[in-house]
Amino acid sequence: MDGRTIWTVYDGIKRDDSTPVSVFFFDANVSNRRNVLPLAKNALRKLRTIRHPDVLKFIDVVETDTTIYIVTERVQPLGVALSVWEGKPAASKEEWLIWGLHRIVIALAFVNDTCQSTHGNVRTDSIFISPSGEWKLGAFELLSNAKDDAAVLYTYGSLVPDLMAFAPPRSKQGNPAAVDAYELGLLLHSVFNPSHPLPPTASSPHPAPTSATRGAIPNSIFPSFKRLLIPKPATRLTPKLFLDIGNGDQAGDGTGFFAQNRLVKICASLDGFSLSGEAEKSTLLRTLKESADSFPSEFTIHKVLPSLVSALDHGGASANAILPLVIQLGKSVPPNDYSSLVLGPVVKLFASPDRGTRMALLDHLPEFVDKLDQKTVVDKIWPHLQTGFADTVAVIREATVRSISLLVPKLSDRVLNNELLRHLAKSQLDSEASIRTNTCILIGRLAPSLSTTTQRKVLIPAFSRALKDGFVHARVAGLMALMATIACYDADDLAGKVIPAMTFTLVDKEKLVRDQAVKAMELFMKRIEAHVVTMPETAIPQGSSHQAALVSSAAGAAGALAGWAMSSLGRTLASADMQTTMAETKRPVVPLSNGDRSMSNVSAPSITVSSDPSGPTPPRVKGLKLGANKQPSYAGVSFAEELEREASAEIRDAWGDGGDLMDVNADADDWTAFESAPPPQEDDAWGESLDPDPASPPPPPPAPPRTTSPASAPLRAPLRSTPLSPTIPSKLPSAHSSTYGTPMTSPASNTIALPGEWGDMPANDERLRAAGGMTTMSKEEKATEMARRREERKQRIAALKEQKKNVAKP
């Protein structure tokens, strides 16, 4: 401070929270300053007890017998700030000076009127500037109560450096505001004319100020300036009256110079923003938006910006107008301070349940998303953002979907390949068509960022669902998404999944969809044709010479079907086959192809038929336990023969209807089995699980295949092309159920009774066959016939049980 004060000021950092602070240091052992130690102790005592927004904020102190360390908020002396403002425009500088003087006058009025004290040291060295540009009153070394007989002001005042140059004439101890008012007048001259000496009024005989001594003091303030320097304390203007004149509360020349200041008005509006009406808020926000560039940078960054962020915490309709202004003002924040001043408070707003705030954040996400890192997005934004997918307001749901594309590069693999896709699967079922369409578009944009496994599980089911959407633009979006993600599919997926899933759109009712489908088909076919060129001509082993000729017409195809199928089987029987009879051999079971996976989970029941009642009993078969170790029952012979006859009938007519595939003219038949689709699965909206739950137990290993000897190998019933009953159970009845809990005996071997739900062959096959079979029945007749079969079956089983009990009796 160049010897103008007893303190040495240092910048520091608070250890516990890294807050920037200033440290005022006094050492009584330096230059024999022990005589001014009472001034330092008085400054510490007054600064601790006086708290006001415009007074230097006290934080902590370290005191010894000869040294004092006072810790305050981070500030700089006014003299340093004045030198910085010298090169700025005169209008901006005058506006800033009046705003700062307004804060000092408020502080002096508080000290004089509320505290009934006199500051006694009002000059540029006693005023400090906060990081927001606000002026703070400090230097309380001489602050004394007017009623104190041993006031420091009058006993140690002469020890303050250069104080006598600012001392007022005829000062009286009884008026606490008289001394401060006179020093305030000299302060006005010093800040507006920093390069000029003090006016002649400061020297004896203290003449009244003239226009020649005004300098850069504004004309509106000059009349009040002269009244502050009146030599007589009784007629001198007090700081409180000077404040009233500046606020326009007092009539006279030059009133309202504080009230008309733009910075003063903005600060007043920001302080009462939460209590203001919507019209007042709109006016303030419009003023800030239009004039933000003309404000002092420190005022914008540290005063306006924190006030607006604090107002955002209250939410409401004004949030949509405040957030863009916060982003705009944040552009002037230094990069080192952007995270703490702008980004941190804005990210916290995602936790707010206010819909206005959430909508504003999503709308303006592009303006600050590049400043976010992955940890912030995953830990602080995503947990709150994902709640928007299930919001009851459709606008929030749609804005949430649209915002995801901006955050994709900053999402973790776990969120991207699991949590996000589960939300998008539900969004494809949204009641709003626009949300379903945008979800399809978003999935297409996400495709390059997904893992290969996720691409195969998600993309085709998701886009296939969009192709079946009732909204025309959703169907177009599905086709365009398939085209955009063609690099994610290999040739087999294109030919086996993509093209079959989109071919029906070629005849869509909307021309827009049809045209897009044609373009998609052309793109896919070019890709397949390019792949086919690289494929070998055949996968048949080189030893085979059979080749099929290509046909190009319907007649040629019909002729080709008239011939026998190619066969690579030898014309000579193997030696093992020569030793067996045709009755002993087993019909080979054709393995299911990929297209028959719907039947792969249904295993045909095994039927063991023996024509020799006295033959050996085969070993026990697990699963549905049959009583092989029981005494043979002759009552079961007819039932075994009946099952054999039913199995033979199935083999003779495996497709039904006497060899005809279907009667296309039978309009009365029931075709519901062909028209209905399998019920959807509730667990996964896209048909497959995205990622296994790490907490869930692994699936049980498949059961090992049963091995049977050729002599006891059961004859498997052939798979039927159509179900034996209208409904197929999801699983076979348990072997320990009440219906099949009792073992059944047979004179020759174990026989497995087919469950009633799969459909029993009728007791009298000839009667039904003569009547045309079940295909000629109506739904009601079929139901009646099936009920009759089940009842007959129950009666037969009951008879077998009773017979078994009679045989077991001695």
From TrEMBL:
This is Protein kinase domain-containing protein. Residues 586-628, 671-810 are annotated as: Disordered. Transmembrane segments: none annotated. It comes from Hydnum rufescens UP504. It comes from the Eukaryota. One of its GO terms (cellular component) is cytoplasm. Residues 595-614, 735-752 have a biased composition (Polar residues). PROSITE patterns: PROTEIN_KINASE_DOM. Gene3D superfamilies: Leucine-rich Repeat Variant, Phosphorylase Kinase, domain 1, Transferase(Phosphotransferase) domain 1. One of its GO terms (biological process) is tRNA export from nucleus. GO terms for molecular function: ATP binding; protein kinase activity. Residues 1-258 form the Protein kinase domain. Residues 694-707 have a biased composition (Pro residues). Residues 778-810 have a biased composition (Basic and acidic residues).
